[in-house]
Every structure is written in structure tokens, then in C-alpha cells.
Amino acid sequence: MTRPPALVVGGLGLGQIVAFACSFYLMGVLGDDIGRDLGVSATLVFATVSLSLVVPALIAPRVARRIDEQGGRPVLLLSHAVLALGLVMIGFARDGLGLAVAMAVIGFGQSLGLSPTPFAILVQLYGEAARRPITGVALIGGLGSTLGWPLTAWFAGELGWRGACLVWAGVQVLVCLPLTAWLCPRTQGRPRHDAAHAEIRWDRPMIQLAVLFACAWFVSTCMSAHLPRLLTHFGLNLAQASAAAGLVGIAAVTVRFLEFTVLRRLNPIATTRTATLMHPTGALVLLSSGSVTGGAAMAIGQGAGNGMLAVAKGVLPLTIWGPEGYAYRSAILGRPALWAQVLGPIVFAAALERSASGAVLGTSALCLVMFAMTFGLRRSRSPLQQQVIA
User: Fold this and answer.
1) What's the rounded Cα separation, in Å, for the pair 158 and 154?
2) Distance, CA of 67 to CA of 118 (rounded, Å)
3) How many CB atoms lie within 10 A of CB 49?
4) Which of 33, 137, 208, 357 makes an SS bond possible with 161, Cβ 3.0 to 4.6 Å?
5) How far is CA 236 from the centre of its chain?
6) CB 9 within 8 A of CB 16
7) For residues 148 and 141, what is the distance between their CA atoms, to the nearest angstrom?
8) 367-381 pLDDT, tens per residue?
């Protein structure tokens, strides 16, 4: 039985909140306590986070091929079990090696269950009408840090970090798994010989989007890891910098809401082009003033731009090429971004040690590269596949 689209979007969005909270954002709250109790350095703990990001970079195309061929529902259901297993393994880890293995399992769960999978399910369900459902899931999933960080901190305060991991594992198995089984419809994949994988080649639009997304995810992970530290280099104290950095999530959710409502009829290529300029605009204010106002502008620019680009990553492949082979094409396009995501925090840390202004100018320059990559893309006009310059 097919559920109403609003119910499907709500269920997938809730699953994304939990998935991001218990994987991508977990160590931001528990990392220091885990390192102290296991007797390992913070550097090693966060190196396991990078390890968890390497796994999706390695296997994402294979997962996407499976989604295209067999539908996305089984993959999403498996993701809940794998994430729960990884969380249990963290909860019982006794040393750095056990933690590393557990985080590799978490990375496998991320490759199965984070945003590309629900986006692909929505494309399989709604075809080229999937833009708004994708935006809805991205909007709800954007609360992963806003809700995940305080919930993880509360679980840890009540039960310790091991207990927090086990609670999140229970949520995956007892809430998310049955919710997905109930809400997520079965979608029809295509047999290997019918799938569009062989037709996907690295032409100019593919290269442009791959460069755009790689730069976007590089900048995003740089800011996620270092924004409060960056703002302290411009005269803000730690409390002011932390408060300003908190505006990132608010800005991201706000623009996704606008994308879901007011902006949904606009050409997504044009909205992506606008999004690439938001980080440089905030950086310009920061470099000009170096005040609390500049810090807030930097955070809002980064959050708004990244919020729109997260939607664009799901929508642009659909807009340009249509639904055929969507999951596999998206995975191929996103693979350079996954590697950039691994390297971003390390490279930006080195740049920040040399010059805070230079680091900001560097990320702004990458955003201008992204801006250039939006030109010359063409929008599919199904069913006739006519194209017009965007």
C-alpha cells in the first residue's frame, strides 16, 4: 500500500535526523569522553571519524547500483541495522582499535542510509516530480545537528557515553527500522542489463557538477570542524564565536524551508548559482569588520549556502538528466565530494595556522569556482528531453 507523499517525506526525514545524529554528529559530543575513557588521544578519536567518511567514498557507487537495480527500500532498511551494530560496537569498545572498527561499520551504515538513499527512493517513486519531496526530506534532515547534539549530550549526561550509543542503537532498531518498513513503499529497480549505468559518461556537465559538489563539501566540512576557531581569529571570544556558529543550522533550515515553499518553482540551476555566492558574501563582511556582526554574517552565509547546496545535490542530477540511473549517477558525481570531505578539516587546519584571512579567502575562492561551474548546464525537458540553456 502506497502511503501519502507527506507521510513518506516525514518518515524519511525523521530517519535522516536520527541517522545524522548518531553517526556524522556523534563524536562532536562524545569524542572527548570516549578518548579519555579509552586512553587514546583526541587526534586518534577524530581520525576514526575520517575513517568512517572514507568507507562511503569507497563503496557509494556499488550501493547506488544496487538501489537502481533492486530499489532503495531494502538498502535503507539494512542501514538501520548496520548503524545500530556500529553503535553497539562503540558502546562496548575497549581500545582505539575497537573504536576504529566500530566507526568503519558506522561509515558503512552511512553509505547505506544517509541522504542519497532516500533521495533515490523519492526519485523512483515520483520521477521528475521529486524535487519538492527531496527538499522536504533535506529540510527535516537538516535538524540532525540541531536536535542530535543536545539529545546525545542528554543521553550521555544520564547514562554515560556508552549508554548514549546504546540508546541511539535502540532508536535505530525499535523506531527507525519499523517506521521505514511501514512508511517506505517498495520501489521498482531495473535489471542490470536494462539499467542506465552504461550510458553514464564523464561529459562536461558531469565534470562541472562533480567539481561543484567536491568544492561545496570541502568547504562545508572545513566550516563544520573549524568555524568557531576561525571566528576567534577575528576578535570574537569563544562564547561569541560559538553563538555565531550556531546560526549555521538556523540559516540552513530556513533556506530549505524557503526552497520547499517560495523558491520551489524557480530553476534549481539558478538557485544553486545563488547559493555559491553566500559563503563569499559572509566572508567579505567578516574580513571587512572582524566583529560579532562579521562572525554572524559568516555563519549565516555558510549555513544558507550549504543548506541550498545540500538540496541541489539531490535535485540537480534529476533536473539535468532525469530519473534514469539517478542513484548511480548521483553516487559517481558525489564520489569526489566524499574524498574532499575527508581532506577538508586537515587542509583547512593547516591553512588556519598560517593565516586566518588566507584560509577564508581560500574557501571563498572555491565558492567562486563553484559559481563558474553552474554556467552552461542544461535542464532536461522530459518527456521529449528537449534542452534549454540555464
Assistant:
1) 6
2) 10
3) 20
4) 33
5) 28
6) no
7) 10
8) 999 999 999 988 755
